[in-house]
Amino acid sequence: MPITEILQKNADFYPNDVSLVEINPKLENQARMTWREYSLIESTSGEAYRKTLSWGEFNKQANKFANLLLTRGIKKGDKVAILLMNCIEWLPVYFGILKTGAMAVPLNYRYTGSEIRYCLELADADFLIFGPEFTGRVEEICQRVKRVKTWLYVGEDCPTFAESYDKLIEYCSSKSPTVKLTDDDLAAIYFSSGTTGFPKAIIHKHRSLMHAAMTEQNHHSQTKDDCFLCIPPLYHTGAKMHWFGSFLVGGKAVILKGIAPEWILKAVSEEKCTIVWLLVPWAQDILDAIERGDIDPSKYELSQWRLMHIGAQPVPPSLIKRWKEYFPNHAYDTNYGLSESIGPGCVHLGVENEHKVGAIGKAGFGWQTKICDEAGKPVTRGEVGELAVKGPGVMTAYYKDEKATADVLKDGWLFTGDMAMEDEDGFIYLVDRKKDVIISGGENLYPVQIEDFLRTNTKIADVAVIGLADARLGEIAAAIIEVKEGMTLTEEEVNDFCLDLPRYKRPRKIIFADVPRNPTGKIEKPKLREMFGAADVVAKQNEIN
């Protein structure tokens, strides 16, 4: 079943029920107001701070956009790119594209103008819809991207080089298009995170999207009464595919435009959210804010919050231990996935397996897993190898890249590039990215293991371990450490703390600096290697000279 049919079903069954709420909490004196009071207030630009959309309105908006695209000649197989910050228009735009049979192409909102151009050209995009935050970047490239014929703007003060979404959609029919869709029709192009180089264009069919929804609902048992708090960027598979579990059953979702701890707790309290998906840094920020006394959980209505789950990176067991001290009644879960496997869920811990915190779990609903050596053969349980997954959510291919596709797709198995091991109970633990493994003096060092250890230091806010070139050992482990606000930490203290690690795992270089992360929470290690690896080379050259 194409996933667009779920939207139609929700509109038919629950036309007047709220489907989406958008909250923009950036308002003075917000602590003295509820979100519902926000909805009565408008900013100087006339924008409401709380917006809602019923399922019937959601479907009508998607139909209107679909019909607009069809009048502009968009057809099956064409590509329509989305460059929007999280907003209440995002999902109706996405589903409008799918209803035409075209492929939705979400773009990372952190892309520079040149990166936007690169992705539009790589995906052969025919159409771009963008928001006011991107006007400068889009104007910079619009004359140089020849294939894109229409630049559509969402918001007030439409630039001269674009057309207004709000004005055009007003006159479009709200009836469902008559385009026939099947599970095997192409649905979307998602871009890889680019943490290992230029992003690749990942093709998924409607079958993949539908399986993501079924997997998520199977794992977390969403009902119509659940309310999902959506904070991560919608352009990424992670947030959207977790929301798909609520979408499948007609549950409400809240789009929160901000990540401050007090905003998250206020949204949960005022909107009665039951399910919250967090990234590791956001969970850490909430705990740090509680421990500093900046926020008091008892002042919020949180009793209905039943599930906190985390993904996008390995989860430090120490973080979950701290979380349970403050929120003992929350069920905890983690999911593993990648855009090539339509986001989270191909490996799943399960709320019943909290005693295995630190593991990413076992094969998810409808998925298979194996851990392989360099030759692609399964390793012995307990040995480290590359994780491979197989299931209905595996990508079709990398668009226009047969070699890259062949490198990771083998006999239906997707080789993830993540190094992992399986314990005696069959639970899988991530060890590190294959490309991030540090080989020091012939020993394999897995940065995640060192990072997890360092995060148990109460003065450390965040940490990344990378390999730096070394004339004697080939590589050494360097720890980039971000110290908690208001605290001090010295290199000597870190080295003393690391005495509990085996000698070969101890970082040989300590660097105090901010740890950069992309919008999905992944550490940007190529950026760190560029920053500190280049500095190392310069220093060595100075020593030689």
Overview of this protein structure:
This protein has 545 residues and is of the alpha/beta class. It has two domains: 4-310, Rossmann fold; 437-544, GMP Synthetase, Chain A, domain 3, CATH 3.30.300. The protein has a nine-stranded mixed beta sheet, sandwiched between helices. It has a five-stranded parallel beta sheet with strand order 4-3-5-6-7. Strands 17, 18, 20, 21 and 22 form a five-stranded antiparallel beta sheet that branches. Helix 1 crosses helix 3 (55-71), helix 3 packs across helix 4 (90-99) and helix 5 packs across helix 6. The longest helix is centred in the C-terminal third of the chain and has 20 residues, at 525-544. It is globular and about 70 Å long. The model is unreliable at 28-46 and 534-545 (pLDDT under 50).
Features:
about 550 residues, alpha/beta, Rossmann fold, GMP Synthetase, Chain A, domain 3, nine-stranded mixed sheet, five-stranded parallel sheet, 16 helices, 27 strands, about 30% helix, about 25% strand, globular, disordered C terminus
Share in helix = 25-40%
Beta strand %: 15-25%
CATH superfamily of the largest domain: ANL, N-terminal domain
Reading off the top of the CATH hierarchy, the class of the largest domain is best stated as: Alpha Beta
CATH architecture of the largest domain: 3-Layer(aba) Sandwich
- Averaged pLDDT, please? 88
Low-confidence stretches: 28-46, 534-545
Number of helices: 16
**Distance between the ends:** 67 Å
Number of strands: 27
Largest sheet: 9 strands, mixed
